[in-house]
Structure formats: C-alpha cells, structure tokens
Design brief:
- The longest helix has 25 residues.
- The protein has ten helices and two strands.
- By secondary structure, it is mainly α.
- The chain has a two-stranded antiparallel ribbon with strand order 1-2.
Length: 250
C-alpha cells in the first residue's frame, strides 16, 4: 500500500490559511490573540524546515523542529487555558524584563538605552502591581505542559532534539564516527532523521491547526483537519489535561 505524500497534505493545510483568517479571531479575547502569534510562529518554522530540507540541511533544523513542537504544545494549552493565559504571560513578561534589565546593567549599556530601560522598569512595576500570581504560571515551562497532557512521545522527541540544539557530545558526534576499525570524520552529519522533515512538518502543522481551530470563531477547519488526520493517521481530537491542577481547574 502506497503511503500518502506529506507534500500533498502540506499544500492542503496551507490552503486553509486564508488571507481573511484575522476575521476569525476576537481582539478582546486574549487567548485568541496570543494563539495567533503562537500559531504563525509554527507556520514560519514549518516553512523554514522545508527550506532547510530542500537544501539538504535537515541536520541543522533541530532548533526549528524543537521550537515548532514547543509552540504547538503551548498553543494546545492556550486553547485550554482561555483568557486567563493573558495574565500568566504578562507575569512571565515581567520576569523576562527583570532578566533583560540585569543583562543590560551587567554589560554597562543601561545609560545608552536609558529610554528602553525605563520602559522595562515600568513594565515590571505595572505587572507586579496589577496582575495577581496564578498557580498555572508553572505551565509556561514546556516540560510541565507535556507531562500534564501526557505527551510522552512528544517529550521524548523534544528531549532528543534538545541534545542536537545545544552544544553536547551527542551533537558533535554527528560529524565523526568510530566503528572500532577506523575513525572517520564528515563535513555532513552522519545520522538518520528521527522523523523525515516533510512528515514532521505535516504532523506539527496539522497539530497546531487542530489547536488553533479551537480559538477561531466557527471552527472553520474542522472537517478538513479530520479528513487529513484520517488519511495520515494523525489525532482527530486534542489531548486532555491529565496532570495535577492546571487548565482543567478553571
């Protein structure tokens, strides 16, 4: 039996992302606005992956695959968490600004970027005074999300890709090999892909669209996503929260 072509599926999914898609989100719904940014990050990562694949540089695409997966899982949480995610991410922004301010002070450029530095300080102050802590802030870390949704295969894949994304012996060993008889070096990575890039792109884009469809008014992609899922063996429903606390307690 011939396996369906991932390229054909990708074209079908891309065609669903119409130019008037913005009309399907509600500006006052923070989850849909944040979801918009998360979703199109996945779209752009997928396009980058396909370009690297065409250039025979799939080995260099680990950061893109990792990022696409991370944003897709977060998008799942966004659809589950609802408007509450806005406060959680504002709290995270406050912490990010504190870290950035420390970095600017450390490299001695605080005076040079005084206006921007002041904006950072005001952001931290505003968030601290106006946004209450939320127990679900811990879920902004991807490992908590993956474990809470019981995404064991995705967590395994993410962990493997992390070893190729950051400097590790696992990553460097892609370019040399000792088989006991000879030591060989290569200018191209010596490895087999965990999942071929086109199939990964189709899978991750479909998963992201399944999540984002929940945030679009009228859920316009439902029928087509179900059709693609059945043809390629993907999930037709989103994973539910199974961890302690979290979105299910809204």
């Amino acid at each position: 039996m011939t396996e369906p072509d991932p390229g054909e599926g990708l074209i079908r999914l891309e065609n669903l992302i119409s130019g008037d898609l913005h009309e399907r989100i509600t500006p006052t719904n923070r989850a849909s606005v944040i979801g918009w940014g998360l979703f199109f990050t996945v779209v752009h990562q997928v396009r980058a992956l396909l370009l690297l694949h065409q250039a025979d540089a799939c080995g260099a695409a680990s950061p893109n695959r990792r990022s696409a997966l991370e944003h897709t899982v977060t998008l799942r949480w966004c659809a589950d968490q609802g408007d509450r995610i806005g406060d959680i991410y504002n709290r995270k922004l406050g912490m990010d600004q504190i870290q950035l301010a420390k970095a600017v002070r450390a490299d001695g450029t605080a005076d040079r970027y005084q206006d921007a530095y002041q904006v950072m300080a005001e952001t931290v102050k505003t968030v601290k005074e106006s946004v209450a802590p939320d127990p679900n802030e811990r879920l902004a870390k991807i490992e908590h999300l993956m474990k809470g949704y019981r995404l064991t295969k995705e967590w395994s894949y993410y962990t493997i890709e992390s070893r190729f994304t950051h400097p590790t012996l696992t990553g460097t060993q892609l370019f040399f090999q000792d088989d006991g008889e000879a030591f060989r070096v290569s200018q191209m990575p010596i490895h087999d892909e965990i999942v071929p890039c086109p199939l990964f792109c189709l899978w991750i884009l479909h998963a992201a669209m399944l999540c984002f469809n929940e945030l679009l008014t009228g859920k316009p992609w439902t029928a087509q996503l179900e059709k693609v899922a059945k043809e390629y063996g993907f999930m037709t429903t989103l994973p539910t929260w199974q961890g302690p606390g979290g979105p299910s307690e809204q």
